Records
---
Amino acid sequence: MVRRNFKRLDCKDFLIIYKTYIRPHLEYAICAWSPYLQKDIQCLESVQPAATRLVSGFKKLSYEERLRKVGLTTLEVRRQHKVVRRQRGDLIECYKILTGKENIDPHQFFHLSDNVHGLRGQSLKLSFNRSRLDLRENFFIHRVIR
């Protein structure tokens, strides 16, 4: 759509269009679906090089040079920074669920461990059932407990 509607883009216009229309689609609900398969990560990462080629005069430059001139980082770098934020957000959400600050029954998500001995006063040790599928290993419950 951007290529069709904008024939010539300079760096300033490209940044506005990219940050407004393209990147939000790439990062929408990324903390929920959390791409972990290489094919999904590569699919997302392939959009940005194509987008940076839209800037006039940038087609022959390498991807790294285009990023430097435009002032962007790779999506993988952004994703790594978001992993830390996502982990913090997951832990905060877990705390809210366990302490009743969210209107969610904690037993829907978490199982309290039966082994309360040796927990040094901790009564909220969590456990989860092992899953057969690798897909389930990256769900919210498993990410938080790990």
Note: The first strand starts at residue 111 and ends at 112.
---
Amino acid sequence: MTEHVLLCLKCRGRDHDVDHCATETWSSELGWMFSPAGRPTSLGTGSSGTFEIICSRCENLNLIELLESRPPWTSQSDLSEAFEDGHECIRNLGRTGSIQFWADCCVCRCLFGITPNPSSPDQEVLLLPDWTINRVAGELGAIKMDTPETQAYGSCLLSALKPSSISLPAGIVAHRGDALCMMENNMGPRRTLGGKRIDPHEINIDTILHWVASCMERHDSACRPAPTKDLETVRLIDVESRQVVGYPGPDCEYIALSYVWGNVRQSHYKLGDTLKELPRTLEDLISLTKRLGKRYVWVDSLCIDQLDEKEKANQIDRMWGIYRGAYITVIVLSGIFVDAGLSRLSRAKNYQ
């Protein structure tokens, strides 16, 4: 290495490790997973050379071999048991009080980025492989990876602390952070839910439509929109006329939004009103809806009269049916207020 710039797990800073950190308090592991603190830090490369450097510790981990092989467990309970008892495919990086991550090692930076904040210097940092489908299944974890079809899914690498400060099974805790996986290419066999290169400036509409079409074709009815009577009194936004309209009927394919409003004053609209200029996230949603070839959207702040408390209570009771009946739901994970915009849409580029 040309320069040894250390990264600190305790404060997420540079130029030192946990043993030399001036920060006196330890952060929460759970807080790291559900706050901006858990988002990737801009660490730079740490090296002025053309080629990325890999330290000897990371070379000896054989992570490529680990990611190319199939994870040995077929359920999340098996993963949790292996995590507690130890398994040959689990890599131990050491204790949080003495482990070193180098900013000039590209693998160190990746491992540092997926490792949660420790709550003490005595926790071990463990790397373990799992199926990417389990990141979609979440805490349900009901998929058994014991058939050729299920084992066609890609694999990923997780980082977890042992013992964890979170009183949940390791198979659940490990999936609450970020993960690493191999990027697919056109040379070898492709796996379902494998790694893909993402354009940081543009959304691939064809990919989204392909995902939705595959879901409609391959999944059972529980994974498809299910219009219910709850929708009969719901209002939508017609993105062509920008008017608040009544629900057109069970054949209507609308897009719902889940987002954070934040400290922005809300406007209120009634049936038949035409929308004025909207906060950036909502304008981006309308643009995305048009690009997906759909006409209607549902947004709580626009489709519910915010000044009518009785109507608000009535519509809140119908929220389950609203999201269950949507063609898709756009979930804004990166914005902390409604003017943040949607990632990788033109209006949002300067605000992410």
Note: Confidence is low (pLDDT under 50) at residues 45-50, 348-352.
---
Amino acid sequence: MTYWTKIQTLGFVTIPHNVSRLLGKRDQLRIQRENVMLIVRDYNNIIMKIEDKEKALFKEHMENLDRAIEPGIRRINWSMNADPFVLSCKRECQDVFKKVKIFQKNQQKIKEELERISTATLTQIQENLYHLKEFVKEQEDALKVKEKEFSKSFGRIQTKMMKTYELFL
């Protein structure tokens, strides 16, 4: 438009009235473009954060997010004030992003607990001679300690699973 206005002063081209009106709203359009880009960036962050295995789990959340964004694509035009819509969409995107992060964090904690359980040694053998009764007693004591640790790990896994489940209610 800047070049068109320069060319128009030389008399080579005439700028249509509608285009001139758009030029007058340049700052408003720039702001709306930035608002749209905020939503696009948030949406793309969610898409990039979700791993391939998790896409099916978050399909419903993404469909709801698409439904929230869809009116902006169909109904809102450049002459309208879209600030309430932008804020609403950003809030929706942030909610879904937070759920993805919580899910991934819970999955990581569960993996750590399972790794701790899988690498646990269930016996405690020292380098000295044992009588059979002493050996059996020491192994039973070691198993009782491990049983308490396993119970705590199970409780932590169960808590994380329930928190993860709540994301999909």
Note: The chain has one domain: 2-166.
---
Amino acid sequence: MEYQICSRGLWDTTVPGITFDTSGESNYAKMFDNLVEMYPRGQKGKNDWLKIVDKIKKEGKNKPYDCIIGVSGGTDSCYLLYLAKQLGLRPLAVNLDNGWSSDIAVKNIKKVTSKLNIDLETYVINYEEVKSILRSYLKAGLPWADAPTDLAIKAVLYKIALKLKIKFILNGSDFRTEGKQPREWTYTDSKQMLYLLKHFENAKLKTYPYYSFSKLFFYGYIKGIKMYRPYYYLDYQKKTAQEFLKKEYGWEYYGGHHHENLFTKFVIAYWMPEKFNIDKRKITLSAQVLSGEISREQALEDIKHPPFPQEQLKRDKDFVLKKLDFSDEEFQKLWDLPNKYYFDYPSNMPLIKKYSKISRTIFRHILPFVPSFFFELDTRNS
């Protein structure tokens, strides 16, 4: 395909499954519009969210906590703690410690939870298991090598909610500031994770949290634990939130999207762009342009610059290799191998796509929102 860039955002021909209409608008821009239509903000969104808040308070009455919020030390989760307290909710903050959190992130969590008087529970994973899993994803040559961390975070939140009989989990995700990454760049699931772990590391898990689709059905439908995304409803802007957190709590910025985790930073700023020519900022900046947070001109200027200073990336790379027990020679061999994607290894995706209608029905019983995956599936199929 001849190079082309979306007339409204930064989505271009490096993005899998992209198409353009006669005006130069991409199908990803239209997918964003569909999400906005389904989840309006303004007064309508605020009213919808307040109804959910009332439901959370009613269900959590006479319990120590009425909801759980996963915290990473980043902007979205820290600001969500503040919002929850403002609305009279009684959240338990939960942090997943996989051995890769930056010092700044750890300090941010302590500052915000302490000042807001929110209890914090930290779930520590056996690092040898973490190391085996991350090594297996790098050996597999997959772009989003930090995908198993995403699985672990959600699994921990559901696990603690079940243990404490809490029915609601609040998640800081926001398609308006993050966008929807194409599945070729980021998809994985527990079936794939366990396969890669056995195939590349010959290891088994004892403490690492994850969930199967049947387990997710158990949490969401049988036990009625619901995960909500408040920013889908509320007028939220990341930069404004950052300035507020700095002023009120002494919160510190960590340098980039998801850079509060050192391995995540390595994957986003080095592994993906340098090995796969994947710049996830094209997705996030496009979403921010369409949501009005930044201008398209500013986004086009930002994307011209590397995601992080190259001299610091070299130090980060050396740190990652040492922490994962890779020599320079071993890592170079991995680097030289052909790039792979989720469809090169076993996963649940073929079944999800084949039985899309049934999958939607199942997810409708599990989650109180439509997974953006289905928006992507519809947009690209059309």
Note: The two ends are 18 Å apart (CA to CA).
